Amino acid sequence: MTLDTITIKGIRQGLLITLGDRGWSEELRDLESRLSASPSFFRGGRVALDVGSLELSYSEIEAVHTLLTRHRVELWALVGSSAATEAAAQEIGLVIDLGPSAPREKKTESQEDEGPMTEGMVVRRTLRSGQSLRHPGHIVVIGDVNPGAEIVAGGDIVVWGRVRGVVHAGALGDEGAVICALDLSPMQLRIAGHIARSPEERRRTAIPEMASVRQGQLVAVPWQGTGSGWGG
Amino acid sequence: MAARVLTVTSGKGGVGKTTLTANLGVALAMQGQRVVVIDADVGLRNLDVMLGLENRIVYDLVDVVEGRCRLRQAMVRDKRLSELYLLPAAQTRDKTSVQPDDMVRICDQLREHHDYILIDSPAGIEQGFRYAIAPSTGILIVTNPEVSAVRDADRVIGIVEAEEKGPPRLVINRLRPQLVKRGEMLSVADVVELLAIDLIGVVPEDQAVLFSANRGQPLAFAKDSSQAGQSFHNIARRILGKDVPFMPIREPGMLQRILGIVGLGEDG
């Protein structure tokens, strides 16, 4: 099996896919293989595509847009060094400048090994029923997660708002992942392979909580409070 | 000025879209607007029955789309209000007969001569919903204070927001303040907190709606004789840009008003 020349990095706005230099049709084929090989990794994510010096027409950009859409990936930006490519990308409605974000998040120094995933995405909106977010790294939502919405992260999940939908942290197997929310009332909560739901009684006031796996069990600990277990 | 096109939709079936469309059409016409209401529920038409106009249908929406008649021939004029027209749906066809472009074309033709075009959307989020929102300049979401209805409304709002039709507005229908008080029904505040869009009306549960549907005489015609009728008129006035305070809803036997979040009591 030949290795392709595509590289994928996490940036502030999601994923950056940089194509190689083997020519458009080869790169497109390699991209399709990558997408098909790891559907849950890509699905629901946002992608910026770096095409380097390739000169692409409107219809070629449309074709890669369709390919990504088919794999339920949102293409929001296309960058390259060719002016013609930029013009075509703009015509389709794509951003052509990634802004001041660094192409790679710096790994944080720490005493313990935090694992390979320290990249993440921050989303500032409420997720409505039927919407979902997926990211191999961490996901931060500034907003609510409504019933019928779902978040799947390889890393941690932090919601600055209410969680009433389905949240799954550590989705690639990391049992050390955590889920934090100002109001943790999920339909279902999952960390790695563990699944739990909220207790039946509806709490009167919301308290910030962090859910994690302790001794093989999913527990939620209040931000301020006495004792552990489900708060309230 | 060209007409505003408002689509009334909900996701969930049976929450009161057709009732709202019929009564809102009547209320707006009673307030001097030139109104057309369009039944977009091809195959399961109901708006004609609500308005009591089913005996006068000769041509329908699909006849217009397929070119068997002119648009004006399919429009049924209400005998009670001269500025209220109905464009009925077809009953013997289904929703594959109409495309979004067809609706846009029809509304473009209607825009010059009317002030408001109200489109009664079918339930769901499939083709019928799609062609019902295609020509729309503003969307009204109808829901009931009940978990499944609110879940579906949230889904629809997510889709509508992505379509960039402007922020949708909410009508909460079939509210029963006594059940809210007993904690057996979601409150107005509960629903608004979850859906997070502007509230434009609250309509109480009212038996009179059933009787009026059976008679084909929308409640808005006799607005002072029912709370629901008044609510419909208030919604019409808010749509026209007037600042109408929400009124307290009294259920038979209720002694007092329930207050939720400041400004959002169990009011209509």
How would you describe this protein?
- The complex is a heterodimer of chains A (232) and B (268).
- Chain A is an alpha/beta fold and 232 residues long.
- Chain A has 4 helices and 15 strands.
- Chain A has helices at 24-37, 39-42, 58-70, 83-92, and strands at residues 7-11, 14-18, 46-50, 74-79, 120-123, 132-135, 138-142, 150-153, 157-163, 166-169, 179-184, 188-191, 194-196, 209-214, 217-222.
- Mean pLDDT of chain A is 82; it is low at 101-115 and 228-232.
- Chain B has 268 residues and is of the alpha/beta class.
- Chain B has one domain (4-266): P-loop containing nucleotide triphosphate hydrolases (Rossmann fold, 3-Layer(aba) Sandwich), CATH 3.40.50.300.
- Chain B has an 8-stranded mixed sheet, sandwiched between helices.
- The radius of gyration of chain B is 18 Å and the shape is globular.
- Residues 254-266 of chain B have low confidence and may be disordered.
- The interface between A and B is small, with 10 and 10 residues.
Strand order in space, largest sheet of chain A: 5-7-9-11-14-15
Biggest interface? A-B, 10 and 10 residues
- CATH fold category name of chain B: Rossmann fold
List the helices and strands of chain B in order: EHEHHHEEHEHEHEHHEHH
- Strand content of the residues of chain A, in percent? 25-35%
Summarize the amount of helix of chain A as a percent range.
Answer: 10-25%
Can you count the helices of chain B? 11
The span between the termini of chain A is 55 Å
Assembly form of the protein: heterodimer
CATH architecture of chain B: 3-Layer(aba) Sandwich
Outline of chain B: globular
Spatial gap, N to C terminus of chain B: 30 Å
